[in-house]
Specification:
The structure holds 2 protein chains of 2 kinds.
Chain A: E1 8-9, H1 20-27, H2 45-65, E2 72-75, H3 78-92, E3 99-103, H4 108-119, E4 123-127, H5 137-140, E5 148-154, H6 166-176, E6 179-183, H7 195-198, E7 202-206, E8 217-221, H8 249-285, E9 290-292, E10 303-308, H9 313-319, E11 323-324, E12 326-327, E13 329-330, E14 337-338, H10 340-344, H11 349-353, E15 355-359, H12 366-386
Parallel strand pairs in A: 1-11, 3-4, 3-5, 5-6, 6-7
Antiparallel strand pairs in A: 2-8, 7-8, 9-10, 10-15, 12-15, 13-14
Helix pairs in contact in A: 1-8, 2-8, 3-4, 8-12
Chain B: H1 12-20, E1 34-41, E2 46-55, E3 58-67, H2 70-83, H3 95-102, H4 109-124
Antiparallel strand pairs in B: 1-2, 2-3
Helix pairs in contact in B: 1-2, 2-4, 3-4
The chains are: A alpha/beta, B alpha+beta.
C-alpha cells in the first residue's frame, strides 16, 4: 500500500468541508465589489449592508438553537465559546462561589479551561460518566455544593458520539440556581438542539463541524448578555461588550448559511447517516474481537468508535492511511497515552489504544463505507497475524 | 483523542518492513537447537517474540512476531533477518544502532529496548533437544 490512493474521509467529527452553498455566500462578502465593509460602520450603506448580513446570520444560528438573536455572541469557534462561558461565568459570579462541576469526558476546551480556573483558585469536580459513557443528573447531583456556580456538560461526546441526558441536568441546575453550560459543538446540525428544552444558560457551537468555515463560532447566553459574563477580550465593545473585535462578516455569513442548511436538512441527513453508520458497524463487528465504545442507542448518527482486540493503535492507524480517521491513542509521546475518554469508560489500555473514531457526514457514500470496511478488516486481520498469540507456544512462560 | 494524534514520519525501511514483515512467523515443527524468547506486555503497548534455530554457535534461522507500533514491527523484522548467519552474541543487537538504521525517534527507544530484550532472551534460552 502507498499513500497515493484516494483517501476516504471519515473524520467529519474533526471537521467538515465547507458546503458549496456556504462558500458562495462567503465569497459574496469578499473582494472590492462584494459586501466587505465593516459591520460596525453604520454611517454608510456598505457598512449597514454588512451589518444586515451579520444579523441575518445571527437569526439563522438562533433559529437552529431555539434562541433569540440577541442571545447569540459571535466568537472564533467553540473553544473560545467554552472559554468565554466557563471563565466568564466563573469570574462574574465569583462572589457567589468558586465551585464548578463538569465531567471527565469533556472536550479539552472545557477540561483545560477548568484546569486554568483551578490554578486561579476555583475548585472543580470532574464526575465520571454513567454506563455507556452517558452523563446524566444521577452523576451531577451528588457533586453539587452550595458554592457551585456552574455545571458544564457536553451534548454529544466528540470521541464516542454518545448523547448525554441533558434536560434533567438543566432542570436540576435551575432548581439549585446553578448556571448550566452545554458544549454543543458536535450536536448542532446533527441533532435537534433547543436551549429551552435543555435548560441551558450557555451553549457553545462552532461552524466548521456543520459544513461552515473554520474560525467562527458562537456562544448562546440566556437573557440579556450585558451582565452575566466577565468578557475575555476587550477593545471596542462589540457583541454587547462580551467579545470585542471587528466582526468577520464572511465567516459569520458562512456560519449563518451553514446553520440554515442544517436546520432544513438535518432530519433527512440524520436518517441517512444512521443507516450508513449501522452498515459500517455491521461490517466491522463481523471481524470478531471488535468493541463498540459508548452506549449503543444514545448516540449521534455520524460517529462510530470501535476498539480492536489484538491490534496496536499506531500500527492500525498507519496501516489504514487510506482512511482519514482519528485514533484513540497518542503514540507520539513516550507515555503512549490512551484516550482519556475511553479510560474513563473503563476500557483497558489495549482496547483504549486500539480504538478508531470513524465519523461520516454529508458527502459520505455507501461505496466509501463498504471500501472502508474492507480495508479495516484486511488490515486488522494482517496485524493480528503479526501479533504474538496468547496460546503461542513460544510465548509460554515468557516475561 | 488524543484523538488527533499525528503519526510520526517513518523511514522507507520501516515502511517496507511494516508492509512486508520479512521473517514474520514461526519455525515449523520440532527442531533441534530451537530457542525462543519474548519481552514486553501487550497492556504496555509492546510485546515481541523471537524464535531461532541455533547451529554450531550461529543463528541458522530466526522468526518474529510483534505487537507494537510500526517501528517495533520493523525493528523485530530487521533483527530476525540480520541475526541469521551471525554468531550468537549476547551483546547484539544494539538498540542505538537499530534506532539509527531505522531512523527511529528518540522517544521510541524504550520500545526498541523491548525488541532487544526479546532477542537476547531468545539467545539465552535453553535449546530444545
Amino acid at each position: 500500500m502507498n499513500d497515493k490512493h484516494e483517501t476516504i474521509y471519515l473524520d467529519y467529527a474533526a471537521t467538515t468541508p465547507v458546503d458549496e452553498r456556504v462558500v458562495r455566500c462567503m465569497v459574496d462578502c469578499l473582494g472590492p465589489d462584494a459586501c466587505f465593509a465593516n459591520p460596525a460602520s453604520s454611517s454608510h450603506a456598505p457598512g449597514r449592508e454588512a451589518r444586515n448580513r451579520v444579523e441575518r446570520a445571527r437569526r439563522e444560528v438562533a433559529a437552529l438553537l431555539g434562541a433569540k438573536p440577541p442571545e447569540i455572541i459571535w466568537t472564533s469557534g467553540a473553544t473560545e465559546s467554552d472559554n468565554l462561558a466557563i471563565k466568564g461565568a466563573a469570574r462574574f459570579h465569583a462572589d457567589r462561589g468558586r465551585h464548578i462541576v463538569t465531567s471527565r469526558t469533556e472536550h479539552k476546551a472545557v477540561l483545560d479551561t477548568c484546569r486554568q480556573l483551578e490554578k486561579e483558585g476555583w475548585q472543580i469536580t470532574y464526575v465520571t460518566p454513567g454506563e455507556g459513557g452517558i452523563v446524566s443528573a444521577a452523576e451531577i447531583e451528588p457533586a453539587l455544593r452550595p458554592d457551585t456556580v456552574l455545571v458544564s456538560v457536553m451534548f454529544v461526546n466528540n470521541e464516542i458520539g454518545t448523547v448525554n441526558d441533558l434536560a434533567p441536568i438543566g432542570e436540576l441546575c435551575r432548581e439549585r440556581g446553578v448556571l448550566f453550560h452545554v458544549d454543543a459543538a458536535q450536536a448542532a446540525g446533527k441533532l435537534p438542539v433547543n436551549v429551552d428544552a435543555l435548560g441551558a444558560d450557555l451553549l457553545s457551537v462552532s461552524a466548521h463541524k456543520a459544513y461552515g468555515p473554520k474560525g467562527v463560532g458562537a456562544l448562546y447566553l440566556r437573557g440579556s448578555p450585558k451582565s452575566r459574563l466577565e468578557p475575555m477580550i476587550h477593545g471596542g465593545g462589540h457583541e454587547w461588550g462580551m467579545r470585542s473585535g471587528t466582526l468577520a462578516t464572511h465567516q459569520i455569513v458562512g456560519m449563518g448559511e451553514a446553520f440554515r442548511l442544517a436546520a432544513a436538512e438535518q432530519p433527512a441527513e440524520a436518517e441517512r447517516l444512521a443507516s450508513l453508520r449501522d452498515r459500517l458497524w455491521a461490517g466491522l463487528s463481523g471481524l470478531g474481537g471488535v468493541h463498540l465504545n459508548g452506549d449503543p442507542a444514545r448516540r449521534v448518527p455520524g460517529i462510530l468508535n470501535v476498539s480492536f482486540e489484538g491490534v496496536e493503535g499506531e500500527s492500525l492507524l498507519f496501516a489504514l492511511r487510506e482512511l482519514a480517521v482519528s485514533s484513540g491513542s497518542a503514540c507520539t509521546s513516550a507515555s503512549r497515552e490512551a484516550s482519556y475518554v475511553l479510560r474513563a469508560l473503563g476500557r483497558d489500555d489495549q482496547l483504549a489504544q486500539s480504538s478508531l473514531r470513524l465519523s461520516i457526514g454529508r458527502y459520505s457514500t455507501r461505496e466509501e463505507v463498504d471500501r472502508a470496511v474492507g480495508l479495516v478488516r484486511a488490515q486488522v486481520e494482517r496485524l493480528r497475524e503479526i501479533s504474538p498469540r496468547d496460546d503461542d507456544e513460544s510465548t509460554k512462560g515468557a516475561a | 483523542m488524543s484523538l488527533h494524534a499525528g503519526l510520526p514520519e517513518y523511514s522507507s525501511e520501516v515502511r517496507r518492513r511494516f508492509e512486508r514483515a520479512p521473517r514474520l512467523g514461526h519455525l515449523a515443527g520440532k527442531l533441534p537447537g530451537r530457542v525462543s524468547g519474548a519481552a514486553g506486555d501487550v497492556r504496555q503497548g509492546v510485546r515481541v517474540v523471537f524464535e531461532a534455530r541455533l547451529a554450531e554457535g550461529r543463528v541458522a534461522q530466526c522468526r518474529f512476531r510483534a505487537y507494537g507500533c510500526p517501528h517495533v514491527i520493523a525493528a523485530a523484522s530487521w533483527v530476525a533477518e540480520h541475526a541469521e548467519g551471525r554468531r550468537v552474541d549476547p551483546a547484539w543487537p544494539d538498540v542505538h544502532q537499530l534506532a539509527r538504521l531505522l531512523q527511529v525517534p528518540p522517544h521510541k527507544l524504550g520500545s526498541l529496548l523491548v525488541v532487544q530484550d526479546a532477542f537476547r532472551a531468545c539467545m539465552a534460552a535453553p535449546r530444545e533437544a
